[in-house]
Design brief:
Layout: E1 4-8, H1 31-44, E2 47-51, H2 59-65, E3 70-75, H3 81-86, E4 89-92, E5 105-110, H4 112-117, H5 119-128, E6 131-136, H6 147-166, E7 172-173, H7 178-181, E8 194-197, E9 203-204, H8 207-211, E10 218-219, E11 223-224, H9 252-259, H10 267-290, H11 308-316
Parallel strand pairs: 1-2, 1-8, 2-3, 3-4, 4-5, 5-6, 6-7
Antiparallel strand pairs: 8-9, 10-11
Bound molecules: iron/sulfur cluster (2 copies).
One iron/sulfur cluster (SF4) is lined by residues 239-240, 243, 245, 248, 250, 265, 269-270, 273, 308.
Amino acid sequence: MLKYLIILLSDDAISYCQYATKKEYANMIDTAVLKKAIIWAMKENLSVQFVHSKNIVTNEISTLINSIDHVDIVPSYHTNVNLLSKAEIVVHDDWCKFESRKGQIQVIRTSFSTLLCKKDSLIKLLKYSDRINIVITDVEDFDDNKVKDYLDFLKSLIPTVIDEYKNGHQVQFNLLTDRLMLKGMNNCNAGYESITLAPNGQFYICPAFYLNDEQSIGNLDNGLDIKNPQLYKLDYAPICRECDAFQCKRCIWLNRKMCREVNTPSHQQCIMAHIERIASKILLEEFRKINSSFMSGIDIPEVEYLDPFDKVQNKKQ
Ligand code: SF4
Ligand code: SF4
């Protein structure tokens, strides 16, 4: 069921996810489109998320934004300090200028190699943030030779997370703690639970589909027109529905880009999510050494694969 409408306020709105923002053109959403979008979201009973660029919006746009309950997704380099301090989600394209505020989600977009060099920065951030979401932007380049490095990196952060919990600071960190909290899939669900409105008044599966010139899935005048909508649901993803890496975003865009099918995941996405799953299992075991009933309803069983494709193949044989 559709729950969220993501509205890009301009073409160069910050990327909070896997895709790159195109910076060479920057159409702003106009007031007529925004007004229509807000009315549409109200009629459809959707939660609205506004994605900002570095630009300060006009007073008219700002008034419209504030006419509806919403979430602001804002780049860390935005010059409107008031907006930055109130935003629910702040996105960082680098590892500087962190000012964490209570309840705020800090999204850090980073390459894999840079992430591995940033252990000390991440340890500091885990100590004073409520939630850190790392988005690794070059999943395509991940290969089996990097498995050990990634696992060692995540394991090296476990003592910090445990210390923070011991101190009463229950930091959330998507790569380590999310799997501990989940009893079922918590995927992005673009195309099923959320859709994106671009500044041109057209709907897209997610911002990545718009920025990469994929076909729109309808518009504000005629409504949604998603071809084969079932393909965006977990039930129609034969590999993912066999999987329990519940923290995985199951990125439809990466599926489309790397496997040409929105419901078929790439090996890279799967093995990264399973390394996180292994590290989460180790974290859970460490917590249970301190408190045997910690997250008692959660189980992360040992599995023999890093890619659930192997599990599906073995079942067939
Ligand atoms: S499909 Fe979801 S996870 Fe993937 S780029 Fe789009 S919004 Fe992000
Ligand atoms: S790890 Fe792979 S199979 Fe599991 S949910 Fe993620 S993309 Fe799907």
